[in-house]
Design a protein that fits this description.
- Chain B: This is Carbon monoxide dehydrogenase large chain.
- Chain B: Pfam families: Ald_Xan_dh_C, MoCoBD_1, MoCoBD_2.
- Chain B: It comes from Meiothermus hypogaeus.
- Chain B: Keywords: Molybdenum, Oxidoreductase.
- The structure holds 2 protein chains of 2 kinds.
- Chain A is 33% helix and 26% strand.
- Chain A contains 12 helices and 14 strands.
- In chain B, the strands form 7 sheets. A 7-stranded mixed β-sheet of chain B has the order 3-5-1-12-9-10-11, with helices on both faces. In chain B, strands 7-15-14-13-8 form a 5-stranded mixed β-sheet, sandwiched between helices.
- Chain B has 3 domains: 206 residues, Aldehyde Oxidoreductase, domain 3; 322 residues, Aldehyde Oxidoreductase, domain 4 (2-Layer Sandwich); 147 residues, Aldehyde Oxidoreductase, domain 4 (2-Layer Sandwich).
- In chain B, 28% of the residues lie in helices and 22% in strands.
- By secondary structure, chain B is of the alpha+beta class.
- In chain B, strand 23 and strand 24 form a beta hairpin.
- The chains are: A alpha+beta, B alpha+beta.
- At the A-B interface, helix 12 of A face helix 4 and helix 20 of B.
C-alpha cells in the first residue's frame, strides 16, 4: 500500500537515463511500472531512486529497417497490439500481447520493461526466442546487441549489465513464415502458466516456451522432431509428446511439474496447429 | 399520480455517486487533527509472544503511541464476544490485541498510531516482537485429532461446540431398511469474501461531552454499538454513535465486530485525536472473516420407488481462531435446518462439530450455511439419481414437495410457508430446453467433447424470525426490524431503516415502495440508514432480511401515516375519516373528487396544526417495529451448462439459467443484479476460489495473484426469469433475493462439471474444479470408449 521513500527522476533521452543511472546507484528504471510498483508497495523492493524512461521518445515506436523490424523498448503493449507493421510482418507479437493482462495493463506495460524484468511467466520472452530476435542494450560503454537465445539467464535475470538500458528489439522479417502463440493463463494472475510460441519458416520450426521453467527457453526437442517435415496434424501430434521432463519445471498452486509438462505438450500442439492453419 | 413503481426497473439512485467516485466511504473522511493507525500483525499462525519491544517504534518521529494488548487489558477493555451461543459452547476470550499468543496469521500484536499513514506503516516495521513459533493446525479435522496443538489453552480439545438436529434413531432405521444408499465425503472449500472496499474505521472522541463516534465499514452499526458499549469497552450506549456510511460490499464479512474498531476507539480517547485505520488488501485476506470451510460425510437413502427416505450428515465446521459475531449460527441453524431442501425427505439427521484452528476466523459469507446445505444435498441427489439410473431432473421431480403441502413442516425445524417448486422447475426446463440440451450432450460425447448439465432446485430461509424463536435457538440479538417514516412540512419524506444498504440498492427499491404507499413522487423520498444517531434501533443487513423484514416495517409505518393523514383530511374537508379515500395522490371524500387535499396540504397542516382535529397530535411521523411471524422461503431452479476440455482439465461455462421465486419483484433491475452477482460468486467457489493453507497455518492463496475471483470472461450472459409465489405473512408478500444466486450456483456448476465428467466414471471431486484437479481425475480414469492420446 505504501512504498518506502524514494527519489523520482524523469529522463528525457537515453543518454540522460544512462547518466542518471550512474548518479543513482541501486536505482531502478521505471517503464510501465506494473511489476515494479506492486513490488515496492509490498515493500519487497525499496529502491532509493526511480528513473522514469517511459516517456523517452527515442525509445518508442515500431519501424521497418531493411530486413528487420525495430521495436522501441518503451513501446506499450497497446501499441504493439495495434501496430499495422507488426500485424503484417510479425503477427505473433500482437497475438501474444493481446493475451497479456487487461486493457489497463496493456496501456502502460512495455516490451522493454517486460523483457528486462524477465519474469519467468511473462508472455513475450517466448515469442522473442521463437522469432530469433535481437535485443539492443546501451550503457556508459556504448551499445551492444544480445541474441534472445542468450538474453534470459535465470529467474528475473538477463544478460544485461549494471548501468545498461534495454533500448530496442530487432525482429527479422520472414516473408511467408507462419507463427502462433498458445497460452494457458494462470486463472488469477493471467500470467502464462505455460505459453508456447512457434515460428515455422520453410522446413524449420523455432519454438519456445515461457512459464515452464526459470526463464523462457527453446523447445529444441520439438524443433528437431519437426525439422524438414510438413506441418500436418499427424506430424504435429506425434512431435508434441514429452517435450520437457517435469523434474526442473516450475510448480505452484495452479500447476505441478507433471501438469506443467503436460501443458507444454498441449500448448505446443495448439500453437503449431494454429500456425499451420489446422 | 404516476403508475405504480412496484415492479419497475428503475435505475438506482445510488449509482451516479458510486460510478463518479463521489460516494462517501469511511476512508474518504478526514477530520481535523486526524491521525493514522497501522497494525503490527503476527506472521505466524501460532506463536507465544515472549516480549514486545516498542521503543524504536515509539521514538520514530511522528509516532504518537504504540498500543499493546496488555495496555488495553489493563485499561479494562474486554474481549470481543460472539453473538450466538449454543449449549456448552466454549467462548475463550478474544482480545482486540493479543498479548499471550498469536493464534492466526494476521492476529494483531500491537498498533502504531502516527501523524501520517506512511509514518505509522514505517514504524510498525520497527516494533520488535520476540515470537516463539508453536505448532499450528489449519484443517478442522486435524484440530480434532488427539494431541493436536490447542488454539486456546482452556479448550484443550479445540472443540468449540457440537450441535445436532433431527431424529437420529429414525434416520438410522431408514438407512438400515433403504433400497439404496449413497455416501459422499465432501469438502466445502474455504473462501475469502473480498469485498471491493477494504475495511476501514475512524474513531473520534469528544472530551467535552465524553462522546464517541465510530465510522466503520459495517452491515449492522447498531450491533457494533451494543457489543462495544455493553460488553467490550463499557462506553454508555448513548455516548457512542456508530455510522456505517457508504460501504462497498459486505457479503457477511462486515457483520463481525472487528478488533480494529476497538483499537481506534481506544486510541482516539487516549490521544484525544481522531484515529483512522484502513486495511491494505493483504490485511483483508488474512483478517476479514472467511466463509464456508466444511468437511462433511453426507449420505442419502431411498426406497424402492425412488423416494428419498433419509439424509444423514456429519460435518466438521472450521471456526478459525476466534468466534466471530455470527459464526456459531452458520453451520447449525442456517445449515442443518436447510437439509430438507425442496424435497419431502421424512427423516434427516445432522451432526456438527465446530473446532477452533489457527486460521482466520470464519463468519457468515453470502448464503451462510445455505450454500453449504444446498451443495451437499444437490450433490447427493445427482449421485443418487445416477445410482438409480434415473434422469436427475426426474428424480428431483419425484421428490419435490407438492404445491398443496404448504405450510410444510420439515423434519429439521423449519416450516415452509409457501412454495410451488415443480412449476418453477418446469419453467426453467422449458426455458433452457432441457431435452435438446441432453441430445446435444450425447452428440458432443460422440465427438469427444464433454458437456455437462447441472440442474438444481433449492430453497433458502431468509429473514430469520421471529425474535422469540431465534432467541430460543441461541441468538443474542432480536431479529425484528424498525422503521421511522418522517414527513416534513413540505411533504418530503425521510425514511429511516435499521437495515443497511452496502450495494443492494435499498435507497432505490425502498423509495419506490414508499412512493407507492404514500402516492407521492419517488424523488420526494429519501432513505436514511447506517447511523445509530439518526435512526431507531435495528439489527442491520444480512441473511437477505432487509426487504422481507426491514421494508415490511417501513410499509407498516407508512400505513400509520396514511391513517393519520386521513384524519387530518377529514377535518379539513369536514367529513368523517371513514369516508376519506387515498387515491391518485389525494385524500378525498369518497365519491366527491373535488373535495380533496393533497399530501402536501396534509403535511403542512400536520405541522402548522392551525386548522386541526382537537384530539390529534400534531406532526406526521410514524415508527413501526416489525417482528415477522416466520422466515421467508425463496426458492428456485438453476441450470448450468459447462464444457470440460479433457486436454487441460479446464472448465468453461457455456450457459447459465436461473428461475428464482422471491415473491413479487420490487425492482427487476436490482433483483436481477443481485442474482447475477450471486451467481458469479457461487461460480467462484465451484471453479476458482479457495483459501489454501499449508500445514503451518500460512495462507498460500492470500493475494490476487493466487486467489482467483471470477471475472467477466469466466461468466456468460445469465438467462434469468421468475415465478411469483408470495410470502403469506408479510404485507407485500416479498422474500429475499440477495443470496439466492450464491446459494444455487455453486451446486448447479458443481453438478454440471460432475455431469461432464460422467463418461470418465468420475462420481465426485471436491471444489474448486481447477484445471489440474480435473485433468488428474481424467488421467486416473480414462473414458471407456475414448482411449485418449
Amino acid at each position: 500500500m505504501y512504498t518506502a521513500e524514494f527519489t523520482y527522476k524523469k529522463a528525457g533521452s537515453i543518454s540522460e537515463a544512462i547518466s542518471l543511472l550512474q548518479q543513482h546507484p541501486d536505482a531502478k528504471l521505471l517503464a510501465g511500472g506494473h511489476s515494479l510498483i506492486p513490488t515496492m508497495k509490498l515493500r519487497l523492493a525499496s529502491p532509493p531512486a526511480l528513473i522514469d524512461i517511459s516517456k523517452v521518445a527515442e525509445l518508442r515506436g515500431v519501424r521497418l529497417e531493411g530486413d528487420h523490424l525495430v521495436i522501441g523498448a518503451m513501446t506499450t503493449y497497446h501499441e504493439l497490439e495495434t501496430s499495422d507493421l507488426l500485424k503484417q510482418h510479425c503477427p505473433i507479437i500482437p497475438q501474444a500481447v493481446h493475451l497479456i493482462g487487461d486493457p489497463m495493463v496493456r496501456a502502460k506495460g512495455t516490451i522493454g520493461g517486460s523483457l528486462a524484468h524477465a519474469d519467468p511467466a511473462a508472455d513475450l520472452p517466448a515469442s522473442m526466442l521463437a522469432l530469433d530476435a535481437k535485443i539492443k542494450v546501451q550503457g556508459p560503454g556504448g551499445a551492444r546487441v544480445i541474441a534472445a537465445d542468450n538474453f534470459f539467464t535465470g529467474m528475473f535475470s538477463t544478460a544485461m549489465q549494471e548501468g545498461e538500458i534495454l533500448t530496442e528489439v530487432h525482429v527479422p522479417v520472414r516473408a511467408g513464415a507462419r507463427m502462433a502463440y498458445a497460452k494457458f493463463p494462470h486463472p488469477a494472475s493471467r500470467y502464462a502458466v505455460v505459453g508456447v510460441a512457434v515460428v515455422a519458416d520453410g522446413g524449420s520450426v523455432r519454438a519456445a516456451v515461457t512459464g515452464a521453467g526459470e526463464h523462457a527457453m527453446r523447445l529444441s526437442k520439438l524443433e528437431q522432431a519437426l525439422a524438414g517435415k510438413p506441418l500436418t496434424a499427424e506430424n504435429i501430434t506425434a512431435a508434441c509428446q514429452g517435450l520437457l521432463p517435469p523434474d526442473h519445471l516450475n510448480h505452484d498452486l495452479v500447476a505441478s511439474k507433471e501438469y506443467r509438462a503436460h501443458l507444454v505438450d498441449v500448448m505446443a500442439r495448439r500453437a503449431l496447429m494454429q500456425a499451420a492453419g489446422l | 399520480m404516476a403508475d405504480k413503481l412496484f415492479g419497475k426497473a428503475m435505475k438506482r439512485v445510488e449509482d451516479p455517486r458510486f460510478i463518479t467516485g463521489t460516494g462517501n466511504y469511511t476512508d474518504d473522511m478526514t477530520l481535523p487533527g486526524m491521525v493514522h493507525a497501522a497494525m503490527v500483525r503476527s506472521p505466524y499462525a501460532h506463536a507465544r509472544i515472549k516480549k514486545i519491544d516498542v521503543s524504536k517504534a515509539r521514538s520514530y518521529p511522528g509516532v504518537l503511541a504504540v498500543i499493546t494488548g496488555q495496555e488495553m487489558k489493563d485499561a479494562g477493555i474486554n474481549g470481543i464476544p460472539t453473538g450466538w451461543l449454543h449449549p456448552g459452547i466454549k467462548t475463550p476470550p478474544h482480545y482486540a490485541i493479543t498479548f499471550d499468543k498469536a493464534r492466526h496469521v494476521g492476529d494483531i500484536v500491537a498498533a502504531v498510531i502516527a501523524e501520517t499513514r506512511q509514518i505509522a506503516e514505517d514504524a510498525a516495521e520497527l516494533v520488535e516482537v520476540d515470537y516463539e513459533p508453536l505448532p499450528a493446525v489449519a484443517l478442522g479435522s486435524d484440530a480434532l485429532k488427539p494431541g493436536a496443538p490447542a488454539v486456546h489453552d482452556d479448550v484443550p480439545d479445540n472443540v468449540c461446540f457440537t450441535w445436532s438436529i433431527g431424529d437420529k434413531a429414525a434416520v438410522d432405521a431408514a438407512f438400515a431398511s433403504a433400497h439404496k444408499t449413497v455416501k459422499l465425503n465432501l469438502r466445502n472449500n474455504r473462501l475469502v469474501p473480498n469485498a471491493m472496499e477494504p475495511r476501514a474505521s475512524l474513531a473520534q472522541y469528544l472530551k467535552a461531552s465524553d462522546e464517541y463516534t465510530l465510522w466503520t465499514t459495517s452491515q449492522n452499526p447498531h450491533i457494533h454499538r451494543l457489543l462495544i458499549a455493553a460488553f467490550i469497552m463499557g462506553i454508555p450506549e448513548h455516548k457512542l454513535r456508530v455510522i456505517a456510511p457508504d460501504v462497498g460490499g459486505g457479503f457477511g464479512s462486515k457483520i463481525y465486530q472487528y478488533p480494529e474498531e476497538i483499537i481506534v476507539l481506544y486510541a482516539a480517547k487516549k490521544l484525544n485525536r481522531p484515529v483512522k485505520w484502513t486495511a491494505r488488501r493483504s490485511e483483508s485476506f488474512v483478517t476479514d472473516s472467511h466463509g464456508r470451510d466444511h468437511e462433511t460425510v453426507a449420505e442419502m437413502a431411498v426406497d424402492q420407488s425412488g423416494k428419498i427416505t433419509a439424509v444423514r450428515v456429519d460435518t466438521i465446521a472450521n471456526m478459525g481462531a476466534y468466534l466471530t459475531t455470527f459464526a456459531p449460527a452458520v453451520p447449525t441453524y442456517l445449515y442443518g435446518c436447510l437439509l430438507a431442501g425442496t424435497y419431502t425427505t421424512p427423516h434427516i439427521y445432522c451432526h456438527v462439530t465446530a473446532p477452533f484452528t489457527h486460521t482466520t476466523p470464519v463468519d457468515a459469507y453470502r448464503g451462510a450455511g445455505r450454500p453449504e446445505a444446498t451443495y451437499l444435498l444437490e450433490r447427493l441427489v445427482d449421485v443418487m439419481a445416477h445410482e438409480l439410473g434415473m434422469d436427475p431432473v426426474e428424480f428431483r421431480r419425484k421428490n419435490l414437495i407438492p404445491p398443496d403441502a404448504f405450510p410444510y413442516q420439515t423434519p429439521v425445524a423449519l416450516q415452509y410457508d409457501s412454495g410451488n417448486y415443480e412449476a418453477n422447475l418446469d419453467k426453467a426446463l422449458e426455458l433452457v430446453n432441457y431435452k435438446a440440451l441432453r441430445q446435444q450432450q450425447e452428440e458432443w460425447r460422440k465427438q469427444g467433447r464433454y458437456m455437462g448439465i447441472g440442474v438444481i432446485t433449492f430453497i433458502e430461509a431468509c429473514g430469520l424470525a421471529p425474535s422469540a424463536l431465534v432467541g430460543s435457538l441461541g441468538a443474542q440479538a432480536g431479529q425484528w426490524e424498525s422503521a421511522l417514516v418522517r414527513v416534513m412540512p413540505t411533504g418530503k419524506v425521510e425514511v429511516f431503516t435499521g437495515t443497511h444498504s452496502h450495494g443492494q440498492g435499498h435507497e432505490t427499491a425502498f423509495a419506490q415502495v414508499v412512493a407507492d404507499e404514500l402516492q407521492i413522487p419517488v424523488e420526494d423520498v429519501v432513505l436514511v440508514h447506517g447511523d445509530t444517531g439518526r435512526m431507531p434501533y435495528g439489527w442491520g443487513s444480512y441473511g437477505s432480511r432487509s426487504a422481507p423484514t426491514g421494508l415490511s416495517a417501513i410499509v407498516l409505518a407508512t400505513r400509520k401515516i396514511i391513517d393519520k393523514a386521513k384524519k387530518i383530511a377529514a377535518h379539513l374537508l369536514e367529513a368523517s375519516p371513514d369516508d376519506i379515500v387515498h387515491e391518485d395522490g389525494k385524500f378525498m371524500v369518497k365519491g366527491v373528487p373535488d373535495k380533496a387535499k393533497t399530501f402536501f396540504d396534509i403535511a403542512l397542516m400536520a405541522h402548522l396544526a392551525h386548522n386541526y382535529p382537537a384530539d390529534l397530535e400534531p406532526g406526521l411521523e410514524a415508527t413501526h417495529f416489525y417482528d415477522p411471524k416466520n422466515f421467508v422461503f425463496p426458492f428456485g431452479t438453476h441450470i448450468a451448462v459447462v464444457e470440460v476440455d479433457p486436454d487441460t482439465g479446464k472448465v468453461k461455462l457455456l450457459r447459465y439459467l436461473s428461475v428464482d421465486d422471491c415473491g413479487p419483484v420490487i425492482n427487476p433491475l436490482i433483483a436481477d443484479g443481485q442474482v447475477h452477482g450471486g451467481v458469479a460468486q457461487g461460480l467462484g467457489q465451484a471453479l476458482l476460489e479457495e483459501a489454501v493453507y499449508d500445514k503451518e497455518g500460512q495462507i498460500l492463496s492470500g493475494n490476487f495473484l493466487e486467489y482467483t475471483l471470477p471475472r467477466a470472461d469466466d461468466m456468460v450472459q445469465i438467462e434469468h426469469d421468475h415465478t411469483v409465489t408470495p410470502c403469506p405473512h408479510n404485507p407485500l408478500g416479498i422474500k429475499g433475493i440477495g443470496e439466492a444466486g450464491t446459494i444455487a450456483s455453486t451446486a448447479a456448476v458443481a453438478n454440471a462439471v460432475m455431469d461432464a465428467l460422467r463418461p470418465f466414471g468420475i462420481v465426485h471431486l471436491d471444489m474448486p474444479y481447477t484445471p489440474e484437479k480435473v485433468w488428474r481425475a481424467i488421467q486416473a480414469t480414462k473414458p471407456l470408449s475414448q482411449a485418449a492420446d
